[in-house]
Amino acid sequence: MTDMPSAADLLHLRGTLPEKGEPLSLPLTMSSVFHLPGDPAGVPAYGRMANPTWEAAEHALGHLEGAPALLFPSGMAAIAAAFFALLKAGDRLLLPTDGYYTSRLLAENYLARLGVEVEQRPTTAFSEGGFEGFAMVFLETPSNPGLDLIDIAETARAVRAAGGLTVVDNTTMTPFGQRPLALGADVVVAADTKAPGGHSDLLAGHLASNDPAILEAVRDWRKISGGIPGAFDAWLLHRSLETLELRFARMCDSAEVIAARLAAHPAVRAVRYPGLPGDPSHGLATSQMTRFGFLIGLTLADEEAAERLVDTCRYLRAATSFGGTHSSAERRARWGDAVDPGALRLSIGCEPVEELWQALDAALRPA
């Protein structure tokens, strides 16, 4: 495990004490142009290049990651920036077959036709075959929606020895639950739409790295391609990051309780949660992660049972995202994922855990 970022420092990142009468909250800068007489160096020049609001959000994200961060309008925009800024025709890219499907679609439908060779392996056998010849190895751990794990430190060492870059999608865990850069990854990406935003009211993503050349390449890609964040979403994200540690801790605490009770419930066929002692990922989770997360994989009897739980549980909302204050559920089979028809991905929110459990238990009981 690695040291966690200071939640107290995160609340006080404005740098200097405000002057008398200045706002404590971050001001929202909506301007697309800036007053620019004389030498333009060192100040915002144009809204596609910089904005004080998203620079403040980047500063907060950099504190969380322990490395400089770049903000994007979505998690997929951050992943696209990593792919297009760091790969070229003739390179080989390795991804997990069971990770977030849109990352795979981007690679298969766009990188491949530009001359990047795209290969995939299941998370549970990801290291088989080694990493020789790959320019980039893209990990997602825990995987979404299967919740299988990859050993980040071991993989990063092997990829670096083979001359490649390791990029980790840390969306499911946040920096308070897992620190990919500290474990040896070259790049971390995440969808801040999820738990960092936390209120289901913004879209954002980020990329962080301690390698100046990587950051410069990605920053140039963002500036030239125009894949920049909106100021208002950046402002909302900055607001939300101040409570991330509180929300994440409650969500993880509740998920540990809920997962254990679901595993013992007669209506449940199977549960995947890294915090359960019998889970296949538990051993690695205890050494790689500081928390076990807020996502639970749940398998019921069939599609009908899964849909009934989502429809009848008082405190569960059907949603394809996760990490919000409201608990939600998604049946990934409806999107074509290769999962059991009765499988659900539960995202545990901020409801009091006993009230949430009573609602789940009531919805699981026979009608």
Automatic annotation (TrEMBL):
Keywords on record: Lyase, Pyridoxal phosphate
InterPro entries to which the protein is assigned, alphabetical: Cys/Met-Metab_PyrdxlP-dep_enz, PyrdxlP-dep_Trfase, PyrdxlP-dep_Trfase_major, PyrdxlP-dep_Trfase_small
Entry coiled-coil feature ranges: none
Extent of the signal sequence: none
One biological process term in Gene Ontology: cysteine biosynthetic process via cystathionine
GO cellular component, one term: cytoplasm
Gene Ontology molecular function terms on file: cystathionine gamma-lyase activity; pyridoxal phosphate binding
Domain of life (superkingdom): Bacteria
Protein family according to the UniProt entry: Belongs to the trans-sulfuration enzymes family.
Protein name: Cystathionine gamma-lyase
